[in-house]
């Protein structure tokens, strides 16, 4: 498990770190950054370094790291971009032989433009965890001024990103970020993770706070969470999943739901739907049974058009929502919920579906860009309103439990971009539904399903395009591989 901590808790943990003289943590942070920078420069045979220096302690880290690199004989230009700069850090950089330039507003001087264009490595120390989201107006041009060949190494976080990882903003995009002691939300959350690049954590001796704000499952977490059957298990004890999905128009969604659940090792699947998908399923997934019966969880809504749905499907879906069984709602099924349920509930929208649901529930005044700008915040509003866990699909998938649960957000980024293909969400719904039926909580079921779904996509065709049905067929082998690590 990778854990990230809220910024206030990080500050508190840093303040509680005693036994060091003043500035010791900064020296350790700077030494860690300098070591990583030196290694990357050696790998590429580079030696020209530009240090971007903001007005806070993050700029101080970058200046001390720049001083170390200059002392090692690298050519270092420190560009001061804030209203002030860390004094002793600046002194150290100057004494080590760094050239100091200023770009405090307006357009940069020619020497700054040339240094950025020619740099082998840019050390980004404009903002750290005290930064507000966004780049100051004069720095908006910065990302374009950095040469294409430069390796961008961010100190603690890429400048301009929201430290809490909630808001999308103008930011530096790093090839690598060196952070201290443990990850911060910015490194794991959907709108900010893409700017982070490779994440390297340097231990500077700060103790981990007690409660994480964001978690991420790794492959090593799967064996402890995956429902492995024992000798006394049978199909019922392993969990029966009821699926209400598809219709005469959308016949593929049930195929992918059911195939995914069966391949992932559910005890049994019962499908409820009209003639067409039922006939297809009878011939293509012979393990599936049909019609109502006892189940341990429901997955409802993939390819279900509520306006034109079959009456029997709607009746059973509504009864499921009123029952005390765990329910997963996907796609059209999201139109069926207006109020909180007493049983575990997992919603699996993509961004457009989340916006539609949030607007229907009137959780805020939301413009068309609201989910793109602040995905986890909107998911949280819906989670709180419905007392449900919201799994928001994307390149970084966020599984957001209601605030009252006190549980951390989980984010997963395991799949290749090839996974953004029709039917992929139907596979995820079947897989997560199978895990709910096996008794996992919505948070565990959603995050574990997101992990396995992503890894299976890569396993199915490493480095290339993948069709959703191949991901569904791959699930069992991927689970076996991860169980046997
Ligand atoms: N506190 C500690 O014990 C340690 C702190 N460290 C470093 O200190 C950083 C935090 O330092 P600070 O609290 O000074 O925070 P920052 O370095 O993020 O600086 C905050 C200041 O930057 C300016 N600023 C804010 N938003 C901006 C924006 N969008 N664009 C430009 N300037 C902006 C403001 O003047 C603000 O006061 C960490 O990220 C880490 O790099 C490390 O040295 C390790 C130890």
TrEMBL record:
Cofactor(s) the protein needs: Mg(2+); K(+)
Pfam families in the cross-refs: Carb_kinase, YjeF_N
GO-annotated biological processes: metabolite repair; nicotinamide nucleotide metabolic process
Alphabetized InterPro entries for the sequence: CARKD, Nnr, Ribokinase-like, YjeF_N_dom, YjeF_N_dom_sf
Top EC group: lyase
Function: Bifunctional enzyme that catalyzes the epimerization of the S- and R-forms of NAD(P)HX and the dehydration of the S-form of NAD(P)HX at the expense of ADP, which is converted to AMP. This allows the repair of both epimers of NAD(P)HX, a damaged form of NAD(P)H that is a result of enzymatic or heat-dependent hydration. Catalyzes the dehydration of the S-form of NAD(P)HX at the expense of ADP, which is converted to AMP. Together with NAD(P)HX epimerase, which catalyzes the epimerization of the S- and R-forms, the enzyme allows the repair of both epimers of NAD(P)HX, a damaged form of NAD(P)H that is a result of enzymatic or heat-dependent hydration.
Similarity section: Belongs to the NnrD/CARKD family.
Subunit structure: Homotetramer.
UniProt protein name: ADP-dependent (S)-NAD(P)H-hydrate dehydratase
Encoding gene, per UniProt annotation: nnrD
């Amino acid at each position: 498990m990778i854990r990230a901590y809220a910024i206030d808790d990080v500050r508190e943990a840093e303040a509680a770190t005693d036994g060091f003289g003043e500035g010791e943590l900064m020296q350790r942070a700077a030494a860690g950054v300098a070591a990583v920078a030196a290694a990357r420069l050696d790998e590429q045979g580079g030696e020209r370094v530009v240090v971007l220096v903001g007005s806070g302690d993050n700029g101080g880290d970058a200046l001390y790291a720049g001083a170390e690199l200059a002392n090692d004989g690298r050519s270092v230009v420190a560009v001061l971009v804030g209203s002030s700069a860390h004094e002793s850090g600046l002194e150290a950089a100057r004494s080590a032989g760094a050239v100091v330039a200023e770009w405090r507003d307006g357009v940069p001087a020619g020497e700054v433009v040339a240094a950025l264009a020619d740099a082998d490595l840019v050390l980004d120390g404009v903002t750290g965890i005290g930064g507000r989201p966004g780049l100051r107006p004069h720095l908006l041009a910065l990302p374009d001024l950095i040469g294409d060949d430069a390796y961008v190494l961010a100190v603690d976080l890429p400048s301009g990103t929201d430290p809490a990882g909630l808001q999308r903003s103008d930011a530096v995009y790093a090839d690598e970020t060196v952070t201290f002691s443990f990850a911060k939300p910015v490194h794991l959350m959907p709108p900010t993770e893409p700017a982070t690049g490779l994440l390297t954590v340097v231990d500077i001796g700060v103790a981990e706070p007690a409660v994480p704000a964001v978690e991420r499952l790794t492959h090593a977490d799967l064996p402890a969470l995956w429902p492995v059957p024992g000798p006394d298990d049978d199909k019922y004890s392993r969990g029966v999943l009821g699926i209400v999905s598809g219709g005469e128009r959308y016949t593929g969604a049930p195929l992918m739901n059911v195939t995914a659940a069966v391949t992932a090792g559910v005890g049994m699947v019962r499908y409820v739907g009209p003639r067409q998908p039922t006939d297809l399923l009878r011939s293509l997934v012979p393990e599936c049974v049909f019609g109502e019966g006892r189940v341990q969880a429901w997955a409802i809504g993939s390819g279900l058009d509520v306006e034109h749905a079959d009456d029997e499907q709607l009746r059973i879906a509504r009864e499921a929502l009123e029952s005390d069984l765990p329910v997963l709602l996907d796609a059209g099924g999201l139109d069926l919920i207006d109020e909180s349920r007493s049983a575990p509930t997992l919603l699996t929208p993509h961004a457009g579906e989340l916006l539609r649901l949030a607007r229907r529930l009137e959780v805020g005044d939301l413009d068309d860009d609201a989910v793109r700008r602040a995905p986890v915040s909107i998911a949280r509003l819906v989670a709180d309103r419905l007392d449900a866990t919201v799994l928001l699909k994307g390149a970084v998938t966020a599984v957001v439990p209601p605030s009252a649960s006190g549980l951390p957000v989980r984010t997963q980024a395991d799949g290749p971009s090839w996974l953004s293909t029709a039917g992929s969400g139907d596979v995820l719904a079947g897989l997560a539904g199978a895990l709910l039926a096996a008794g996992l909580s919505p948070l565990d079921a959603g995050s574990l399903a997101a992990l396995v779904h992503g890894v299976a996509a890569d396993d199915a065709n490493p480095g290339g395009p993948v069709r959703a049905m191949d991901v569904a067929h791959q699930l069992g082998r991927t689970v076996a591989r991860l169980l046997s690590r």
